[in-house]
Structure formats: C-alpha cells, structure tokens
C-alpha cells in the first residue's frame, strides 16, 4: 500500500490533462481530501469538475506543494503566475519533460525547493514508475513528500543527479511507446506467418501484457524468465538467436533507440 501522503498547506496542481488527472486520481484514492487541492486547468474534464477540488479559483496565497503538469512548451507562459509561491516554503514538483531545474529556478527564484520528476503513462493504471531528483534547496522531508505523491501512481526511484533524468526519460518515460510498438511489430510478424490481423494482434497484445505481468510478479530475473521458456534447439531458441545477435538484434537496436531519446532530451533541456 502507498504511504500516507502529507501535503502540509494544501496542494496546487497546474495542468490537469492526462498525467495530471492520473496523479490527482491517485492522490484522492490515497486519501487526500479534495478540499485541500487547488487545480488550474483551462479545459477541465467532467471527472475533474465533479471531483470536489478547488477548480480554477486562482493561485492560493499559500500551498505546501505546487505540481507543474503542463506541457513543456506551456511552462514559460504558465510559470510566472506561480512565482509568488517561489523562494519560500512551497515545494515545486515538475513532471515536464526537458524543463530543467535551472529553467524553473530562473522563473521561480533560486531559493525555491524544486523536485524534477519523470513519470510514465502506466501511471494511468497505477503501474507507473517515476525517476526524481531534487535541487539544492529541497530537504530530505520534501524529497520524501515527492516520493509519496508519485507512489500514489506506481514505483519511484531517486536519481543521483539531474543529468540522469535524460536516461530515465529514454528508458521508462518513453519506454511504454517502445513496448506498444513491440506489440505492433509482433502482430505484423504473425500476419506474415499466416494469421489474420485480428488474431495476430490479440496474440501479440496478450503476450506482451501477460509477460509484463509475469515479470512484475515473479522474483526471477528477466534473464531467468527468458531461460525458463527456452528449450535448447527449440522454436524460442531459434527466434532468440536472431533477437540476441549482437550487431543486429535487440541489444544494439535498443541501445541506439535509447541513445536517440536521451540525446533528444539533452537537446530539449538546452
Ligand atoms: N503523458 C506522458 O506519458 C508523460 C510522461 C512523462 C512526463 N510527462 C509530462 O507531463 C506533462 C503533462 O503531459 P500530459 O500528457 O498530461 O499533457 P496534457 O494532457 O496536454 O495536459 C496538460 C494540461 O495542461 C493544460 N494547460 C495548458 N496551459 C495551462 C496553463 N497555463 N495553466 C494550467 N493548465 C494549462 C492543458 O490544457 P489545454 O489542453 O487546454 O492546453 C492540458 O489539459 C508534460 O510536461 C509532459 O512532458 C508526460
């Protein structure tokens, strides 16, 4: 069970789209009182309007925590409205990809406690994973608060320094898209071997989600789970000989894909 969430003087959520809604739902489900939450969102969903939070009532004079969940390109326009909470005791938590702590400090004030977080979309089903890192002004207690908030939608790992956020983005932030593409590619390969498109997709989707669940529940390593389903000289071994080929298989391909994502993250952060 996720630990109890402590939000002190109320929680402000800026932007309540896909990720903001997933987070807010996790917090409310974990026992955060709707009356302690202020949300600013130009196009509130029906669910948000019925949630009981303070919706579009402006920025409260005080807030224990402010969560920034707008798109990175909206950040510069949205941040100045919150600057009054900067340089004080309000903990800012940003989930925006590519928006650096230095950028946030430049608008909110250099003394502002800031935690930068990279979540991922399985947060929508409570199975996300987030990497987080705080700036020099965050206390251990504030890092613990950020952890609690993100644990409402999944697992949390802490980075040693902000430079590692681009690698987190490239592995787990963007990673769900790689897995969805694996489903597409596996289904297409099944079609090429004579299956109907519907059956091929059903097989591919259930195989990826079922294997994910097995990996989640099992205490075996991923390597051991692979070995467990690979008989020497069998069909799985034949496929793995292709997939594990050092130059053309998964390892080299994913190394290139993850590097491309990390490089792009570094570029966006400039
Ligand atoms: N989705 C992911 O997988 C994922 C993963 C990691 C990190 N993130 C980060 O999470 C953040 C949110 O992503 P998302 O997918 O949830 O995007 P989203 O669905 O577009 O949500 C952003 C919301 O913020 C609203 N907004 C825009 N300007 C605003 C303002 N000035 N004040 C308050 N709200 C404003 C938008 O309203 P309008 O629609 O009217 O513009 C929208 O509802 C991004 O920074 C992204 O980098 C997302």
Structure notes:
By secondary structure, this protein is α/β, with parallel strands linked by helices. 47% of the residues lie in helices and 13% in strands. The protein is built from eleven helices and eight strands. The chain has helices spanning 18-29, 46-49, 72-78, 101-108, 140-151, 165-173, 175-192, 197-217, 222-228, 235-243, 250-268; strands at 11-14, 37-40, 54-55, 65-68, 91-94, 114-118, 128-134, 154-158. It has an eight-stranded mixed β-sheet, with helices on both faces. Helix 6 crosses helix 11 and helix 7 crosses helix 8. It is elongated. The site of NADP nicotinamide-adenine-dinucleotide phosphate (NAP) has 25 residues, from helix 1 and helix 3. The site of NADP nicotinamide-adenine-dinucleotide phosphate has 25 residues, from helix 1 and helix 3.
Short description:
It is built from 11 helices and 8 strands. With 270 residues, it is an alpha/beta fold. The site of NADP nicotinamide-adenine-dinucleotide phosphate has 25 residues, from helix 1 and helix 3.
Give short descriptive properties of this protein.
270 residues; alpha/beta; 8 strands; 13% strand; elongated; binds NADP nicotinamide-adenine-dinucleotide phosphate
């Amino acid at each position: 069970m996720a630990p109890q969430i402590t939000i002190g003087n109320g929680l402000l959520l800026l932007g309540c789209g896909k990720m903001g809604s997933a987070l807010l739902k996790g917090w409310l489900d974990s026992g955060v009182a709707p009356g302690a939450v202020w949300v600013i969102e130009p196009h509130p969903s029906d669910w948000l309007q019925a949630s009981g939070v303070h919706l579009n009532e402006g920025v409260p004079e005080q807030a224990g925590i402010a969560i920034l969940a707008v798109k990175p390109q909206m950040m510069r326009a949205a941040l100045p409205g919150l600057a009054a909470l900067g340089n004080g005791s309000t903990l800012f938590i940003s989930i925006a990809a590519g928006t650096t702590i230095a950028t946030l400090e430049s608008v909110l004030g250099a003394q502002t406690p800031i935690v930068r977080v990279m979540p991922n979309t399985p947060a929508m089903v409570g199975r996300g994973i987030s990497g987080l890192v705080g700036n020099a002004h965050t206390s251990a207690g504030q890092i613990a608060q950020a952890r609690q908030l993100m644990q409402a939608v999944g697992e949390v790992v802490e980075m040693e320094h902000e430079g590692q956020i681009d690698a987190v983005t490239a592995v787990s932030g963007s990673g769900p898209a790689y897995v969805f593409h694996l489903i597409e590619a596996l289904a297409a390969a099944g079609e090429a071997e004579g299956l109907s498109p519907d059956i091929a997709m059903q097989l591919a989707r259930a195989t990826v989600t079922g294997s994910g669940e097995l990996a989640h529940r099992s205490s075996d390593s991923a390597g051991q789970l692979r070995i467990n389903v690979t008989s020497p000289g069998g069909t799985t071994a034949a496929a793995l000989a292709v997939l594990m080929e050092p130059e053309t298989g998964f390892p080299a391909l994913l190394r290139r894909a993850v590097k491309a994502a990390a490089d792009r993250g570094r570029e966006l952060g400039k």
